[in-house]
Design goal:
Blueprint lengths: L1 H26 L13 H12 L3 H14 L10 H17 L1
Length: 97
């Protein structure tokens, strides 16, 4: 009787560990990098150049739009392109401070 109880306890622990391992592997997946569009180095240079030629108020407005695009809403993450744009606008504003 005692062996049966110990065997059940061991089986339940193994089942619990297996469930945790399965959940761990499901969470470890990364989004597919091929799906997202990234800004190339040339695109970044062009964005920097165009931001440098805008007025301060225009760049602030651009920053507000980029910031709104990058907001975390529920489970939607911003794309790398949106994040790159936000960072470039922020850098331009930081240069002008």
């Amino acid at each position: 009787m005692l062996r049966v109880a110990l065997a059940r306890r061991t089986d339940s622990k193994i089942g619990e560990q297996t469930t945790k391992v399965v959940r761990f592997f499901a969470m470890a997946r990364r989004p597919d990098r091929e799906k997202y569009e990234l800004l190339s180095e040339n695109d970044l240079k062009e964005l920097r150049r165009s931001l440098a030629h805008l007025s301060v108020t225009a760049v602030r407005d651009f920053y507000e739009r980029a910031y709104q695009d990058c907001r975390l809403v529920y489970n939607r993450l911003p794309s790398p392109r949106q994040m790159q744009t936000l960072v470039q606008v922020w850098k331009q504003l930081w240069k002008w401070r």
